[in-house]
Structure formats: structure tokens, C-alpha cells
Amino acid sequence: LLAGAAAADDDMDYYMSVFEPLPALPPIPADNSLTAAKVELGKMLFFEPRLSASGVISCATCHNPALGWADRLPRGTGHEGQIGLRNTPTVLNSGFLPNQFWDGREPDLEGQALGPIQAPDEMAMDLEEALERIAEFDIYIEHFTRAFPEDETPISAENVAYALASFQRTLNTPNSPFDRFLRGDQGAMTEQQVRGMMAFADNGCVACHQGPALTDGLFHRFELPGPTDLGRFVVTGEEHDRYAFRTPTLRNVAVTYPYFHNGSIDTLHDAVNLMGEQMLGQEFDDDTLNDIVAFLHALTGEQPVVNIPALP
Amino acid sequence: LLAGAAAADDDMDYYMSVFEPLPALPPIPADNSLTAAKVELGKMLFFEPRLSASGVISCATCHNPALGWADRLPRGTGHEGQIGLRNTPTVLNSGFLPNQFWDGREPDLEGQALGPIQAPDEMAMDLEEALERIAEFDIYIEHFTRAFPEDETPISAENVAYALASFQRTLNTPNSPFDRFLRGDQGAMTEQQVRGMMAFADNGCVACHQGPALTDGLFHRFELPGPTDLGRFVVTGEEHDRYAFRTPTLRNVAVTYPYFHNGSIDTLHDAVNLMGEQMLGQEFDDDTLNDIVAFLHALTGEQPVVNIPALP
Ligand code: HEC
Ligand code: HEC
Ligand code: HEC
Ligand code: HEC
Ligand SMILES: [Ca+2]
Ligand SMILES: [Ca+2]
């Protein structure tokens, strides 16, 4: 019995070493220090519908704080109700991702931010016009000047991107049951969740879903029913990238349904089943499936509390 | 000098008697008592984009808390980017209005609530389908049951309306500089604002903009450049109602630009000018105009702090 307990302890040490808890903040790039002024400005811009041609779509429309900072729709719905090709990922913990978008076409949040403003099926906005609209308001001039005091023209596309990136780097969800468990609080996860964690490691999920955000940031081939999407191939033109998508974070995955790049799968149960089949060539029995799903629920962390900013 | 001060005091008594401060709560109808459970549910529904056909438009899209609970657009922009006929009024203090909509076609917030869900150019949603979507979530079943414990089928269109009305009755903005002034704090308004208040009363604005919300709830003929709108005529078919609109509240009017039923006027300055010309046949000099505008700024009250609800 004692030997058994010791073995179990060793096992647990192994599992604990496989995973990493989520730090409070993601890496901050050297050229975009995280200041309160930028975060505050970025928050205003994140909720600012005047960054869209219609004047009613903001980042928060699709990355809705009420809906896990996503939209709970299969695919993003933007300008004039157009439905895009891909599922809207949560922006929670997006600062921990080594690249942005399902196809990884942008290296960081700074590079990512100006995409949706201009995308014809998202905010459909001319960037110059967006800047002109913003520059009409004294309060924005003040906020940009405070956030970028050394710039001659603080209201610039680059600084919009810097501010949005800074705000998003604060949208993290630490202290999930999983994180508390990893830090030594053995009661933080249920027994079923602990079993799920072990199954997740033993079956090789952790090969791709690794690191603090539970993603390797790499691209893997995955085909789904629904609209066809060439995935990473669009970026590289390389044959092996056809239908390959970046491993998404599993942080808060219980609140960011539906699943996969085209949002065609509604439940975690079905998502895990498909992952087993396609990524591991394996069919899980019901118990294992339920354990893994229970574990994924333990990845929901403390949600950031964000008061809606008063816009000018 | 003493006599002059006494006369001024009498004057002030007169002005103080013309106006009414905003109570903390509007009248509560006998058949819809204001309970915490209804308010909480109503808040969820107010932010719930699944009440729209597209799944991305909620009441908060157009009545955006970041934008004075309106949209700062000339006219409402809804389903598939369609632009409606009328300017989106703020829902702040809407419980104080004796009827709802620019044409007063609904008597109260209960009657009002189901309109925008179904309007083809707003949320374009089938009501039955909306209820079905909501009923899929255990958390909504719980909230409806808690809010309407005596109902056999708590999830009903009627109860959606009751809950939305209840939430909106909490969106009030007391303690504006004007209210504090009326309650005896003489320093709450600037001297210019006090002069503006007097001009507002002396020139007869208060004939229509009266009572706690500064509206008589009645319909007055008003023509504007821009799209033609028959106004109250659509409701009554009476000739004298052609182009007549309900006097809007002036509470928070500084933050609910642009102005008038079609949103064609951008500034308070121009709005007051037009009111003088059309409603009073009077042209104000610049000083009077500026005083009145300064007074209208004193009508901006404490904005409700609403944390974005976590939706299922
Ligand atoms: C119309 C819906 C919509 C709007 C508006 C929108 N997004 Fe997105 N967002 C998406 C979709 C869909 C994707 C995935 C696109 C892809 O992978 O090609 C995405 C991807 C992202 C990502 C990458 C996350 C990841 O896991 O790779 C970030 C970060 C992001 N958006 C932030 C923003 C910001 C900031 C704004 C506003 C400036 C914004 N979004 C506006 C729908 C939207
Ligand atoms: C070979 C790499 C790889 C392995 C192994 C892997 N995954 Fe994934 N996972 C991915 C990729 C890539 C996606 C995104 C696929 C897409 O949407 O196109 C994904 C998506 C998911 C999603 C949906 C996330 C979302 O937000 O849409 C879940 C849940 C998931 N994986 C769980 C698991 C589980 C559980 C296992 C083990 C049984 C596993 N994965 C094994 C790479 C992998
Ligand atoms: C697409 C934009 C849009 C959406 C979505 C929308 N509204 Fe409105 N709202 C308007 C417009 C425009 C009016 C004025 C319509 C009229 O007078 O005919 C209005 C009027 C109102 C009024 C009357 C205020 C007054 O001063 O008379 C209330 C209250 C209201 N809406 C609440 C809601 C609620 C509750 C919802 C969600 C169930 C909602 N609105 C959804 C644009 C919208
Ligand atoms: C005869 C009635 C009447 C009088 C007198 C009157 N108003 Fe109005 N007021 C209205 C009506 C009706 C509207 C809405 C008109 C429309 O949009 O069609 C309105 C609209 C306004 C608006 C725009 C509000 C908004 O949110 O769009 C302002 C500001 C305003 N009035 C201020 C004043 C001032 C200042 C005076 C005195 C100089 C005044 N009003 C006199 C009836 C009146
Ligand atoms: Ca998703
Ligand atoms: Ca307005």
C-alpha cells in the first residue's frame, strides 16, 4: 500500500511536470511596453464601433465579453451581416499565443490588430477614415498623447495596434482549478478531472496542447465537415500546410463553443472524440471521454472584470 | 441691494418650482413589481445577441452602454446593416416616459420590448425561435423560474418583456448638476448654466420639456431635412399628427447626439437654435444660445454602472 502511494506520488510528479500554470501576464514585447495609459486607450478602442464602416461593429461585437470574449456562433458575423469563413477565437490569453489567427498569418497581437478593422467581412473600414473619426474627439487626442508621449503624431494606425495589443495582453484568466491544482491545491480539481488530466497526458493530447496556453503554436492537418478552408496553405503555399490549422488554446474552452476552425462542432464531447480519431487514431471509451471533458472544464479561469468604458 | 437680492431669491423660488429633480426610480406598474431576479434576468436579455436572427445584435448593440445607451449614429443600424428610419433614443430614464418610441405607439416598456426583437430592420427575429434558443440553457430556465415563480411556463414572450422593462427601469441617472442644484446645492451648476436654466424657463422650452424627465410625453409637429417620417400620424391617422413626434427627454442630452427623430442635427447648439425657430418662432442671440446649451450639459447625471453579464 505504501509502495503504491509512493508510486502514485511519483506519477503525480510526472504529470505536474508535463503542464505549466498560466502566468499572470504574457510576454511583453520590447517595443511595446505595457503601460496603464496604453491599456486604457486599448480598451476604449476595443469597444469603439466607430472603427467600423457601419459604426455599430466593434472588436467587442465578435469578441463579446458576455460570451467568453467570442461570439458563440459557428463563424464570425460582420459587416452587413456577412458570415466569414472561420470561427471567432476568444481573445482571452491571446497574448500567450506564439502567433495569431487560425492560420498563424500574424506573428503577434500588434500585427493582428489592424486586420479585422479593414477586412471587408468584419469591420470593412478604411484605416485612414478610422483615424480621422477618432481624431475628431479631444478625449482620444488626450489618451493617445498620454499613451505615446514621444510620438509626433500619436494618433496613428501603428499606435491603434499597440494599444489594442496592450489591452488584450491584460485579458488573462489565471487561477483556474487546473492552475490551482498544479500549484499544489489538491482539492482544486475533482477526481474525475484529475483522471481526465492523466488521460490527456497519457494519450498524447499534450504533444500539441502544451505550455501555459495549452498550444504548441504549430500547424496540424485537420479536416472537418462544413466550408472548406485551406488553412495554413494560404500563408505558405506549401502542400503539407493544406488544411493545417494552428493548435488553439484550450484555456476556457468550455465557454468558447462551438469548436474548430469552422465552428461546426457544438460540444466538447464531440470535439474530443474527433481529436482522438483524427489526431491520435484512437477511439476513446465513454469513461475516458467524459474524464477528458471534465478536465477541459477545469481550464476555465478567473474572467477579467472589465467595466464598459464611456466613449466620447 | 437687499431688495434686489430678495427679488432674486423670489425669482429663484419661481425657477425652482418650475422644475422637478429626477427620482431614483420611475413609477413601477402594479402588474410588474421590480424584483432583483427580474432585473438580473432583464440585464442578461438586454445583452443577449441570441435574441437576434444573426446572433450578433443585442439591445446593447444600439443602446450601447459605452455610448450613452444609444449608438451615436443618425439612425439605428440593425439586421444585415440595414439603416432604419429613426434615431436611436437612449434607454436611460426611459421608465420615466409616459409612452415609448418617437411616435408613442407603445404605452410602456413592457409593450415596447418585443418590438425591436421582431422588427425586420432591427433584430429580425422570430419570437418563438428566440424563446426556443433561450430555453436551451439551464441557466435561463433557472433565471426565468426565479423571476416568475408563479408561472407555469416562465419562459414566455410576456416575461421577456417584463424582465427587459424591469432592467431598464433601473437605468436612471440621478444627481446631475441640475438635480443637485434643485435640491439646494447652489454651487452644483455654473453661473452660465443657471442663466441657461432661466432662459429655458423664460422662453417657454419648459412648456414641452417639463417634469422629471423634461418631457410632456405629448406630440408636436416638427419638420427636419432628411428622410420624411409621418411620425405620430402613423399611429393615429389624424391629420394634426402628421410629422408630430413625442417630446424626447432632455436628460443626458449632451451624450445622446446626434439629435431629433432622424438624427440629422449634430450639435446641441444647432438643436436649440432649431427648437427656438420652429417651436417658439424665436431667434436666440449667441449668448442665450450658449447659456441654454451649457444648461443642457448640466442634465447629464450619474451613469449606471453595469457589469457585463456572463451569458451561458
Ligand atoms: C466580424 C467579427 C470580428 C470582429 C469585428 C473582430 N474579430 Fe477578431 N477574429 C474574428 C475571427 C473570425 C477570427 C479568426 C480569423 C482567422 O483565423 O482567420 C479572429 C481572430 C482574432 C484574433 C486571433 C486570436 C487567435 O487565437 O489567433 C485576435 C487577437 C482578434 N481577433 C482580435 C480582434 C480585435 C482587436 C478586433 C477589433 C480591432 C477584432 N478581433 C474584431 C472575428 C472578429
Ligand atoms: C497533432 C496535434 C494535436 C493533437 C495530438 C491534439 N490536438 Fe486538439 N487541436 C489541434 C488542432 C490543430 C486543433 C484545431 C483544429 C481545427 O479547428 O482545424 C485542435 C482543436 C482542439 C479542440 C477544439 C478547440 C477549439 O477551441 O475549437 C479541442 C477541444 C481539442 N483540440 C482537444 C484535444 C484533445 C482532448 C486531444 C487529445 C485527445 C487533442 N486535442 C489532441 C491539435 C492537436
Ligand atoms: C437596430 C437598432 C436597435 C436595436 C437592436 C434595439 N433598439 Fe431600441 N430603439 C431603436 C430605435 C431606432 C428606436 C426608436 C424607434 C421609433 O421611435 O420608432 C428605439 C426605441 C427604443 C425605446 C423607446 C425609447 C423612447 O425614448 O421612446 C426603448 C425603451 C428601446 N428602444 C429599448 C430596446 C430594447 C429593450 C431592445 C432589445 C430588445 C432594443 N431597444 C433594441 C434602435 C434599436
Ligand atoms: C412645442 C413643444 C416644444 C417646445 C416649446 C420645445 N421643444 Fe424641444 N423638442 C420638442 C419635440 C417634439 C422634440 C423632438 C422633435 C423631433 O425630433 O422630431 C424636441 C427636441 C428637442 C431637442 C433634441 C433632443 C434629442 O434628443 O434629439 C432639444 C435639445 C430640445 N428639444 C431643446 C429645446 C429647447 C432648448 C427649447 C426651448 C428653446 C425647446 N426644446 C422647446 C418639443 C418642444
Ligand atoms: Ca470556438
Ligand atoms: Ca439622439
**Name of the CATH first level of the largest domain in chain A:** Mainly Alpha
Our Rg estimate of chain A from Cα atoms comes to: 21 Å
Strand order within the widest beta sheet of chain A: 1-2
What percentage of residues of chain A falls in helices of 4 or more residues? 25-40%
Q: Which descriptor suits the 3D outline of chain A?
A: globular
Textual characterization of the structure:
The structure is a homodimer of 312-residue chains. With 312 residues, the first copy, chain A, is mostly helical. Chain A folds into 2 domains: 2-24 and 173-297, Cytochrome c-like domain (Cytochrome Bc1 Complex, Chain D, domain 2, Orthogonal Bundle); 36-168, Orthogonal Bundle (Cytochrome Bc1 Complex, Chain D, domain 2), CATH 1.10.760.10. The first copy, chain A, has 14 helices and 2 strands. The first copy, chain A, is globular, with a radius of gyration of 21 Å. The N and C termini of chain A lie far apart (68 Å). Chain A binds chain B through residues 47-50, 54-56, 61-62, 64-67, 71-73, 77, 79-81, 303, 305-311, and chain B through 47-50, 54-56, 61-62, 64-67, 71-73, 77, 79-81, 303, 305-311. Bound molecules: heme C (4 copies) and calcium ion (2 copies). One heme C (HEC) binds at residues 200, 203-205, 207-209, 220, 222, 245, 247-248, 250, 253, 256, 259-261, 268, 271-272, 275-276, 279-280, 292 of chain B. One heme C binds at residues 200, 203-205, 207-209, 220, 222, 245, 247-248, 250, 253, 256, 259-261, 268, 271-272, 275-276, 279-280, 292 of chain B.
